[in-house]
Amino acid sequence: MEEKKEDKFILLKNLYEEWKDCTRCDLHKSRTRVVPGDGNPYSLLVFVGEAPGEEEDRQGKPFVGRAGQLLNRLIEEVLGMKREDVYITNVCKCRPPQNRKPTPIEMRACFPYLKKEIEIIQPKVICCLGATAGEGILGKSLRITKVRGQVFPYPYNPRIKVFLTYHPAYVLRNPKEETTIIKDFEKLKELLTQE
Ligand code: URA
């Protein structure tokens, strides 16, 4: 039977309904809300970040703060796409206090949500923004300076390519790395058009 255009939207909405009152880890005590993924679930490309920050926790949407503005610019200027064309989500769906890095326990508690999002979307490429996103997706610790620009198979579906680059917030703190993230996005664009 032909898949209806709204099916993936409905599956993701149902998934969010299952998780919106989640208390699987301590982050629920300080969050304003669970921040689900956002964008086009029919996209070939999924971006994965770390966790919502203050603005994301307030608005209920991922990457809407300063890091999100840089991400939007890279999507438009390097990939030639619009933010609405891609899907954007996080390893942890709740804001850690003081924007600290989520703990391995928090990442594990939230992983079934991310895993299910990827199962529904079945993208061609998952682009991990920073080491925490890469660790969440690949399930192993890594050094982003060593692995950025590289491609790995997604452990739960090796046909999906996992690409790693810097987190945009890191680039905002280290502006000389902007040329590196631009180069990585150029490679990401090639990956999307390959075979
Ligand atoms: N940083 C992230 O990792 N995710 C967001 O949603 C916003 C900032």
CATH homologous superfamily identity? Uracil-DNA glycosylase-like domain
Largest sheet report: 6 strands, mixed
**Distance between the ends:** 26 Å
Mean pLDDT over all positions: 96
Helix-strand category: alpha/beta
**Integer-rounded radius of gyration:** 16 Å
Low-confidence stretches: none
Just name the CATH architecture: 3-Layer(aba) Sandwich
CATH fold-level label: Uracil-DNA Glycosylase, subunit E
User: What is the N-to-C succession of helices and strands?
Assistant: HEEHHEHEHHEEHH
Counted up, domains total 1
How many alpha or pi helices? 8
What bound compounds does this protein have? Answer: uracil
Task: Give a structural overview.
Belongs to the uracil-DNA glycosylase (UDG) superfamily. Type 4 (UDGa) family. Keywords: 4Fe-4S, DNA damage, DNA repair, Hydrolase, Iron, Iron-sulfur, Metal-binding. It is an enzyme of class 3 (hydrolase). Residues 36-186 form the Uracil-DNA glycosylase-like domain. Its EC number is 3.2.2.27. This protein is α/β, with parallel strands linked by helices. The protein has a single domain (23-193), classed as 3-Layer(aba) Sandwich (Uracil-DNA Glycosylase, subunit E). 43% of the residues lie in helices and 15% in strands. It contains eight helices and six strands, in the order αββααβαβααββαα. The chain has a six-stranded mixed beta sheet, sandwiched between helices. The model has no long low-confidence stretch (mean pLDDT 96). The structure holds uracil (URA). Uracil is lined by residues 49-53, 56, 62-63, 65, 67-68, 90, 169. Residues 49-53, 56, 62-63, 65, 67-68, 90, 169 line the site of uracil.
